[in-house]
Amino acid sequence: MGSRRVFSGIQPTADSFHLGNYLGAVRQWVDLQESRDAVYCVVDLHAITVPYDPEALRRRTRVAAAQLIAAGLDPERCILFVQSQVPEHAELNWVLGCLTGFGEANRMTQFKDKSARGGADQASVGLFTYPVLQAADILLYRTDEVPVGEDQRQHLELSRTLAQRFNHRFGETFVIPAPYILPAVSKITDLQDPTAKMSKSSSTPQGIIDLLDEPDAIRRKIARAVTDTETAVRADEENKPGVTNLLRIYSALSGDSIESIAAQYGDSGYGKFKKDLGELVVDTFGPIRERTAKILADSDALDAVLLDGARRARRIAGETMAVVRDRCGLPPVA
Prior knowledge:
Distance between the termini: 33 Å
Largest sheet: 3 strands, parallel
């Protein structure tokens, strides 16, 4: 393992990851476990900041972990665990919450976005302090680098600020985490509304390609993806957002440049282009879907992998919290 540690987490808020999650995060996590000391978790505590069904959460947490392993995370080469099985996350969240200014938390854009949907009065305190828990997740593992997209940069800044504040007030304790900006995977947009990001919370089922979709469903969704009245396959964000999005997906999965793919199809219409893209997605996701089903079928083995991951994570988290408690003037735990 490399000596620099990376940490990242993913929420279990749906029955399947989608194409945007896969390209934007999961695929990069798999690559990073080769060159870094990698710690990854399914952040179920983050998932309870909004109303939820306990049984669905239980199921989705397992499905999320199974998909991560099926997509290529190797529990031998990284630490993979479920957040709530390491209670130090909640403990450090409280300590950092006591160092966070109310105005500071109030400026976090994600809270504004999410609370705007349901009204700020209905939003939970957990949703408000979500970025503080995120900071605890990161700082607990003395993380050097955090793989982030542009949309998470503000939250990482809070982690850096709180680490520096704690170190200044109580002595050098935390590593100041740096962003590991993921290789440019441009934003994957909704297949039915190419001006909107592909997202479980705002897209229609037809607008999202799920990692666990059946092959025919994938082919159908791509065949029905919104394009335009022209026939030329070319990238043009302004006038051809739908085709441009499909080109981005094709390029990200094949490794070929957008220019070479556009040149390959030219003015031949969208039929063959969409058909070939459908097969490319099926070939990528099919094996992951099959492996996920196999992993979920042996629930005892999956539980054992996650418990082992939690034990390994707790060794690091426990060491960090012992120092934090001592520096803060709190007694050691029994």
